[in-house]
Amino acid sequence: MKYKKPFIIAATSIILYLGIGAILLRFEIIQNLPIFPGGYKIQYGGGNDEDFSTVSSDGPIIIYKNDKILKFAVLPKDTSFSIFTTEIKKSDTLQCYVDEIKDNFKFMLKDSLFVQPTKYLKPNVMLVLSDIEGNFKGFKSILFGNKVIDNNFNWTFGSNHLVLVGDFFDRGLNITECLWLIYKLESEAEKQGGKVHFILGNHEIMNLRGELKYLRDKYYDNADTLKLDYEEWYSNKSELGRWLRTKNGVELVGDLLFVHAGIRADFPQEYSLEQINEEIRKSINSKRSYDKQKDDNFIGNKSPLWYRGIANEDEGQNEIESTLARYRSTKMIIGHTIMNKIKFLYNERVLAIDLDHKDNSDKNKMYALWIENGAYYVTNQNGKKITLAK
Q: Domain check: are 238 and 216 in the same one?
């Protein structure tokens, strides 16, 4: 009997730990729940795999410091890795090595950066996807299969548009590489009359603000190895940080409204799309705590970056119609909430495009939205297109 009371206390503690942990996971307040120190972790939205990631190839990370441009990188060498910190010039050609596919691409830093427009004319063709989350292999396969890039990672999409609807950060292990490819393609597309739209998602904002609860161990380990704090990688003293601070949270391409999570029906009507973007960019460098920002209209739980009410079909048809009319659009295209397939919602007024890309690419499959001359298709990693079911 003397062991009964300690056993009951221990059992109750475990039940409470797992129960409260499950709630925190469900609402994405924590990323994972360790079962024992250094051991197996339960992860919400990412499977039940422990994070075994550690130091591996990464970079380049470009930092501006004391009138110098510094390049940091982790590169493979034999069975280990080498660390590089070098000073570069703006005119240097840079290389990004992708360990996942044992390949690399070259690019140059942009001459200048400027805030992106909010509204665009609609092109004949658009490839649209979201929530790649550092999955370079899957990202490359859908771009190559649909002739957006060639084998050397060069833009081959002409005057067409590539629309990326947020969340290229976190969960995966090739975030830096995905971002540099987008950065490179953006410049190449514009030279051919095309466009790459990079729309901010909640994970972009979190990383830019130093909220790193979804970050994989690899990045902490690489930051320690490089002696460069991870928050500096995307600060306003870094090239990628400066570039990301020119991006929008919502864009109107023709009559199509692209936004990571969705604009709720009761979003304050006094804000134009341009003003929404200005406020989202301002929020990046705000020092508000999570408790104070969670109700923020621009980056909080019901903001265009986080709101799940549309994807979960919590709103009525009339509310959707009213929102679209307010912004002079005919359809809203959203990511953020994983669906079993790319699908229409609300009588074809909303398109939900977020899929489990990691699971798909592990099976050598990828899917994205293809829009051509007003028609909507699902395209795969081989460029095979099927008309999107209504």
A: yes
Centre a 10 Å sphere on the Cβ of residue 343 and count the other Cβ atoms it contains.
15
| Count of beta carbons in the 10 Å neighbourhood of residue 318 | 9
Q: Directed axis angle between helix 175-191 and helix 136-145, to 10°?
A: 30
- Answer whether residue 347 is part of any domain: yes
Establish if 332 belongs to a structural domain.
yes
Find the domain containing 85 and state its range.
58-108
How far apart are alpha carbons 257 and 377 in whole angstroms?
17
User: Taking the model in full, what pTM does it have?
Assistant: 0.88
Assign residue 335 the CATH number of its domain: 3.60.21.10
Q: Are residues 232 and 255 in the same domain?
A: yes
Q: Give pLDDT, residue 342.
A: 98
The 10s digit of each residue's pLDDT in 230-258 is 999 999 999 999 999 999 999 999 999 99
Is 340 inside any structural domain? yes
> How many structural domains is the chain composed of?
3
d(CA 237, CA 117): 23
* Helix ranges (DSSP H) in 307-382: 317-326, 357-362
